[in-house]
């Protein structure tokens, strides 16, 4: 594992310390790594949503009615369960 030295603002440092004091994490390293993992997961989810939006925008418009679109969406959800 690569070692790095980073500095925190006072409020962030206090918050990190409070997480350690509450026994939520055993070390600042563990906490920072967990925060980074969460941020990376969130970014992957954002990227997936953006990809789906781009795909939907490129697919064009439909002449289907609202009820037809709703039924198609329900069918897709049911198929994925």
Mean pLDDT: 94
Largest sheet data: none
Head-to-tail CA distance between termini: 40 Å
Which of globular, elongated, flat, extended, rod-shaped describes the shape?
Answer: elongated
Task: Tell me the total number of β-strands.
Answer: 0
Unreliable stretches (pLDDT < 50, length at least 5) are none
CA-based gyration radius: 22 Å
Q: Which percent range describes the beta-strand content? A: under 5%
Question: What is the N-to-C order of secondary-structure elements (H for helix, E for strand)?
Answer: HHH
Give a description of the structure:
The chain has three helices and no strands. It has 81 residues and is an all-alpha fold. The protein has a domain at 7-60. The chain is elongated. 0% of the residues are buried.
Topology (SSEs and partners):
Elements: H1 10-21, H2 28-58, H3 66-80
Protein traits:
81 residues, 3 helices, single chain, elongated, mainly alpha
Short characterization:
The chain has three helices and no strands. By secondary structure, it is mainly alpha-helical.
